[in-house]
């Protein structure tokens, strides 16, 4: 019967069956020979050792399932958010100015369809009960979508605050998440005031800026909005009532995300995603915090885990360095973009260009008389905003120092409209861009990082066609710098007035200004009442 069954198998299987019998016989013979050759029963057979050795080898490759203590960075951030008391009057006053300025920047962005077209609910017409209200609109959204809307508007024109170090960024981006959540909670009846918003802003600034001081995410190709996500997640966690352990869990999820690539900020891929990337980070932060509130656990060694952690996967195995403990340094030293909607490394260059434009005017000359322009600048500007060749779009232009210098040299101004396709059609702009050369000044690069200076120096040297060389105009500190805060504050308030004017009646503008200019009234105002000042409504 067995023989019959074998004949019914395919040829290949019959061959394998024969081979198997031969192999079995050989193994049986070898085994008998080995047993006969054994010197004594006390000596362990080599074959008997192999399974145990194999098991030990496999066991040595197994991952330990023991959960470690959370990474120190996670703990330090959570402890700061929950326990640190802010006692710096400078930080509180700067935060007030920052809130005013940031809201104004968002309102100004709404005048540009490329921004406003991205806003609103995902499903048109959706109104969320007790939802987040978006300044400058009549939208009322869930806090996740609200964070995207507010964060996108804030960042769109590259006109909100800035902090520059090993990593660059705009800490007021975090207001997208903070205001969205605080407004929603206040509408639910929680007793949150603008004071709570300002505290969250100071701490979000400190987390984002503290991580940026010595750690360059751009060097590994990552965008700085990773720090917006981390900082926003941390402060939002406290706002929604998470405890220390839950806050650590939420922050770990922020680090675990894949993180955005900087490529959308650089030629040849510069696109408007750079303008909504922070809004995206804000919405993600709110989403992650609420997931943890619903019971989602975190990853305690999300940064340090061998092979799988952030350091090994995305930071070339390097751990974060910190220049100082978390406090209020970043808010106290934040940079405001006051006079020009220009990438911050070019702010002093743009200011110098305005001075030279006026000088040319006094001489009876114009940009047409310019033969060459040399810009001495910092290393960061050389890497980020020094572009040659055609500029494709708004996002390309507001990140090119050559464009940002050429435009005011020609027109004596630089506004948000200066970057539009219509404005860029003037052939004189590219003709003048071609005459500009940027060189790094090592002193500017060094003092850019010094904690007691943090300068953003630029110097313009212009030669005319007739051989005249104008005096070089060097500016180290922009008007939005801490060293020029006294000079800059009135200009910052005027900037805010300019931004609210197109949106609201004179009566509403007066009410807004009366509220924001009185620190005591502003601090005590419920968050929803503050947001209502900026919402489109029929009774105003």
TrEMBL record:
Any one GO molecular function term: 2-methylcitrate dehydratase activity
Residues in MmgE/PrpD N-terminal domain copies: 75-323
GO biological process annotation, one example: propionate metabolic process, methylcitrate cycle
Cellular-component GO terms for this entry: mitochondrion
MmgE/PrpD C-terminal domain residues: 340-516
Residues making up the signal peptide according to the UniProt record: none
Keywords: Lyase
NCBIfam families per record: PRK09425.1 (NF006943), prpD (TIGR02330)
Protein name, entry field: 2-methylcitrate dehydratase
């Amino acid at each position: 019967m067995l023989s019959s069954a074998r004949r019914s198998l395919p040829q290949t299987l019959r061959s394998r069956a024969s081979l198997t019998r031969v192999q079995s016989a050989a193994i049986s013979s070898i085994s008998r020979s080995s047993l006969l050759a054994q010197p004594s029963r006390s000596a362990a057979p080599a074959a008997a050792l192999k399974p145990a050795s194999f098991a030990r080898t496999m066991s040595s490759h197994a991952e330990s399932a023991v959960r470690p203590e959370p990474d120190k960075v996670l703990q330090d951030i959570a402890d700061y958010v929950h326990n640190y008391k802010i006692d710096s009057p400078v930080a509180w006053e700067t935060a007030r100015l920052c809130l005013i300025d940031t809201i104004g920047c968002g309102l100004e962005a709404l005048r540009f369809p490329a921004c406003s077209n991205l806003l609103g609910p995902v499903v048109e017409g959706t109104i969320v009960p007790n939802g987040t209200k978006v300044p400058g609109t009549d939208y009322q959204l869930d806090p996740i979508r609200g964070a995207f809307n507010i964060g996108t508007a804030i960042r769109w024109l590259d006109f909100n605050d800035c902090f520059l170090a090993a990593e660059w960024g705009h800490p007021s981006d975090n207001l997208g998440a903070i205001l969205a959540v605080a407004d929603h909670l206040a509408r639910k009846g929680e007793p949150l005031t603008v004071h709570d918003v300002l505290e969250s802003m100071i701490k979000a600034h400190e987390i984002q800026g503290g991580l940026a001081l010595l750690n360059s995410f751009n060097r590994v190709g990552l965008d700085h909005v990773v720090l917006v996500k981390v900082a926003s997640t941390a402060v939002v966690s406290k706002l929604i009532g998470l405890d220390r352990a839950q806050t650590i869990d939420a922050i770990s999820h922020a680090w675990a995300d894949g993180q955005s690539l900087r490529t959308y900020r650089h030629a040849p891929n510069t696109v408007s995603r750079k303008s909504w990337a922070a809004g995206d980070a804000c919405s993600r932060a709110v989403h992650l915090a609420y997931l943890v509130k619903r019971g989602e656990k975190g990853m305690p060694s999300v940064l340090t885990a061998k092979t799988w952690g952030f350091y090994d996967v995305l930071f070339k195995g390097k751990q974060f360095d910190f220049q100082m403990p978390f406090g209020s340094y970043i808010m106290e030293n934040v940079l405001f973009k006051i006079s020009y909607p220009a990438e911050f490394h070019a702010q002093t260059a743009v200011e110098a260009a305005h001075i030279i434009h006026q000088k040319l005017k006094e001489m009876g000359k114009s940009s047409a008389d310019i033969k060459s322009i040399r810009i001495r600048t910092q290393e960061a500007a050389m890497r980020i905003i020094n572009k040659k060749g055609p500029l494709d779009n708004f996002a390309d232009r507001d990140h090119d120092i050559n464009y940002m210098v050429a435009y005011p040299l020609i027109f004596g101004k630089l506004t948000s409209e200066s970057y539009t396709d219509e404005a860029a059609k003037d052939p004189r702009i590219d003709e003048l861009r071609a005459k500009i050369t940027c060189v790094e000044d090592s002193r500017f690069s060094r003092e850019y990082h010094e904690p007691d200076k943090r300068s953003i120096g630029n110097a313009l040297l212009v030669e005319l066609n007739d051989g005249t060389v104008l005096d070089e105009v060097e500016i180290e500190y922009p008007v939005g710098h801490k060293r020029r805060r006294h000079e800059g504050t009135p200009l910052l308030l005027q900037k805010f007035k300019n931004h609210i004017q197109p949106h609201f009646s004179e009566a509403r503008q007066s009410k807004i200004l009366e509220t924001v200019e009185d620190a005591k009234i502003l601090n005590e105002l419920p968050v929803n009442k503050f947001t209502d000042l900026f919402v489109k409504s029929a009774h105003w």
